[in-house]
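>> received
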Amino acid sequence: MSDSEQSEDYIKDLKRKIKKESEKISGNKIEEGDTMRKRRNIYDFLSTAEQNSSIGTKLPSLEKLSFLRRAAYKGIIRFLFKVLRVITLNQNQFNSSVLDILRNYAGIIYDFELKASNDKTLFNTKLTESYVQLKNLESKMYYLEKNIDYLKNNIIQFNQKIDSLPAEGAVKVSGVINSKIIRKNDLDSLYVFLEDNFRGSRDEIKERLKIYLPFLEKAGVGFKDSPILDIGCGRGEWLELLKEKNLNATGIDINKIMVRTCRDMGLNVIEEDALSYLKTVKDSSMGAVTGFHIIEHYGFDYLVSLFKELFRILKPGGLVILETPNPDNILVGSCNFYLDPTHNKPLPSLLAKLLLEAHGFGNISIMNLHPNKVLSKIEDNDSINLKIFNDHFFGPQDYGIIGYKE
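>> returned
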């Protein structure tokens, strides 16, 4: 084998060793029983490599030899080293070049890691700032939406005031009647604003009302010969849900703004008082009558008349579905009920059941709904008193009652 071939093999072997050591450095070493990963410092490797890079420049230690042998060997070794310096000169230059490349490479990696770390810190800072800005924007959008709703209601109210003005040349309506119309419009607008703030979003209400759909399906109502009447339809979430199910339904409400909102959505709604309208409906002509958060608005005399009319207009096998705040929940009965200033009195579920029975309804069922998810129950499975406390403070905030004309 020639000297050039030996040099090439030596260089290839050296490259393999450098590559192997680099892989060890870049890899992670996991000691047994230790979950922390340890990385070798590349600069330690370069320092060790530099100490061994100069071939033929360092004499071996002869301290363990006898004096005569040491003297003899020194002369021979010095001669050999002079010869080796000539032979290994190019190899030393090559080793130095390789080390320089590795040093530069290590420096580049270090700079890159440092830059990446700084970029990550900057990114996290920007991300946090963006998150805070997003939350602030969401809060502003929420209040803007509320203000838009209020302004929209005022515009509707303004248009209704214009519509109520007499035509040119007609006899003017008295100031007393005009003031009543304006006051009614103002209250309608204010009530819609209260509803938007306290009732919940349309999607939330629609999701809650889906629980009643199986009752309609089982009774086989909602068709042309068994339509559904929704009293106090409000913003029309229930009517919208029935329309999506291709069920025949009509709503009635006295709030002009809500009626117009429903009509703009393509819903069939009549602006009239519930009892007045029911008296115009034919006997046994309705498949179902529904009313969500409406019966608590009426006085007792009105409620009795209402239940009488509901039974009259329902077809045999038809049903009534009513939902109202649950005064069994103390927070509802003592406080939340009065967030709506148009509420009359809370109706305990036993009273509502008794009134339905008194007017001929049967197969009556009560569903307790919407437990308080904001407040947490006090956990103690062994305490009966705590269970009663939890039921009355954190239990269902509403109840639904279903009765049939048998």
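>> The chain has a mean pLDDT of 78.
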